[in-house]
Amino acid sequence: MKKFIENDEKLSFEEVDVVTTGTCGIMSGTAAILHIGVSEPGEFKKAKAISLNGVPAFPGPCPNELLGSVDLIVYGTKQSINDPNYGGGFLFKDILEGKEINVEVESIEGKKIEATIDIEDISRGEMIGSRMAFKNYTAFTNPSGKEAKSIFSGIPMKGKLNQFSFSGCGEYNPLENDPHQEIINEGKKVLLNGSQGRILGNGTRSTAEKPNLMLSANLLEMDSEYLGGFKTGAGPEIYDTIAIPIPILNEEIFNNLFIRDNDITLPVADIHGRHLPISEISYEEVWKNTDSRPIFVKDTFDPEKNKIAKNSCPTNAINDNGTINMENCFGCGLCSILTNNKTYKMNLGTVDLDIDNEKHNIPITCRQSDRQRAKKLTSKLKDLILKEIFEL
Ligand code: SF4
């Protein structure tokens, strides 16, 4: 639909039945409720503490007394006690990929129980996102040059006005395309990481001007490609991908879909203070004429020199031989920045910021949203609707 608009092709209300929208980015409010079997019944009374691959979770609310199983809640942002670069988002992906997960339980009577489980041992898993699919984001730069470690950048922001990090899928974002939430509201169906889920309502901190959604879906039916961990300058985070259909029920709903990147403002703030905008641009400036993925230039690869890029990759997508596991790549651009666009080539673009009446051209150094993934899920949703697997 956006291409039709871009090419000035006529598109009438009568011709369009449904438009699928989507977004992919870091969504810190992601958690999962799991029920897992860890031992034979009777081996322990009740879990007091539990961790999965070192990621601490909260046992309960159900006590499961003497059942040998545990109900638990685990956060997508929770850091592993064994590895500062591993957290809940990486754990969810590992579970969905069928990997073995090490579980450690401490019972109320002081017993330690260790078990190795995989997805087959999880009889029920539900993902709940308390704040997802945000409509509005703020981008960040560092005007003072004082180092800032933040979840809003894959690496610490050091230099003065030489790094720029942003999130948001612009014109594809569901809430941008339904600004009055005529369609996207409580009870409606969504595709959350590939699993059919529901909107529970608006999310925490949601307002009419800056809405977001509370969503829920069966974790065990999700596709591992659409979610995962994301290392940041301030610990592990989690990314999710969401697609939402907008049935064209009236002309107003149709007309709202004409929104483009250049209509959507992106405020820019100081990474230190975070809240007060110091400049403003549009989404066209961050997405237009950029590459969605890097290209690996084998001739320039040096395992020692490229170690930093490999270790800094937020999604661990770089293999030991330098090649990129494209299924894990998020298109964040850090590998290109850290190798001066030599070993990993990618045009991330630059932004022109007006700060205190001075113009600054700043390179984009980290993307925390992935439009390619978002578009892939919107296409998948379209297919599922056409096949009548996803019923509106
Ligand atoms: S763009 Fe580079 S650093 Fe970013 S996820 Fe892909 S391979 Fe990793």
Describe this structure as you would to a colleague.
With 392 residues, the protein is of the alpha+beta class. It folds into two domains: 2-27 and 133-290 and 348-385, no CATH class; 30-128, Sandwich (Immunoglobulin-like). It contains eight helices and 22 strands. The strands form four sheets. Strands 1, 2, 3, 4, 5, 6, 7, 8, 11, 12, 13, 14 and 15 form a 13-stranded antiparallel beta sheet that branches. A five-stranded mixed beta sheet has the order 17-16-9-10-22. Strands 18-19 form a two-stranded antiparallel sheet. A hairpin with a 2-residue loop joins strand 20 (350-355) and strand 21 (358-363). The longest helix has 16 residues, at 371-386. The mean pLDDT is 95. Residues 294, 313-315, 317-318, 324, 329-335, 344 line the site of iron/sulfur cluster.
Series of H and E elements: HEEEEEHEEEEEHEEEEEHEEHEHHEEEEH
Q: What count of domains describes the coordinates?
A: 2
Give a short account of the largest sheet: 13 strands, antiparallel
Low-confidence stretches: none
User: Which structural class fits the helix and strand makeup?
Assistant: alpha+beta
CA gyration radius, whole angstroms: 22 Å
Separation of the first and last Cα atoms:
19 Å
Individual helix count: 8
Instruction: Provide mean pLDDT, rounded.
Output: 95
Q: What is the count of β-strands? A: 22
Label the overall shape: globular
- What is the oligomeric state here? single chain
The bound ligands are: iron/sulfur cluster
Beta-strand content bin: 25-35%
Q: Determine the fraction of residues in helical runs and give it as a percent range.
A: 10-25%
